[in-house]
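Batch manifest, entry 17 of 40.
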Amino acid sequence: MPATGYANVEDTVHVPLFPRRWVNSVCAEAAGGEVMVQDTVHWRGVRGTVTVRGDALITGESIRDVLMHQLLQTGQFPEIQFTLDSLIDVSRRADTVLGSAVGTLTLRGTRTPTTAAVKWFPDAGGMRVLAKWRAPAWILDDLTPKIRSYGLGVDAALWKDLFMGADLVFLPEATPGR
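Output type: structure tokens
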């Protein structure tokens, strides 16, 4: 029997990745932010904020989207925010940099310390950043208290982990013409 995968053994290292094969034009402008980097050689002094409009999040399934927006209460709490405090364990492979982003995820006004595995590389005239992180499923009770009224397997402890991710492109700040 394999040690991970279908072995009925919890895999605490690998985060599943479900890449998009294409991006549909139904996506709306949903994210914004700013990251300041003092030292791009050792990646020290990195601070920033990324904000996402909760009502712009879509799964591709209308009924799921309605439920998600109700649970996140996007009318009352329109923004989801990640505040980057530092980068740790940074290493470089060719033009790709790997590390961990340490910061705070704010969802529905609740601030949660978060560490995400990140990878960034040049792309589309800027810097593409791929981030993924996991949290225990019980955290949904704290982040979205309405989930208890819907059930969805959280109260039955059907889920152990919640996997999340982001795919961002940071563009350099436009400098005004002289």
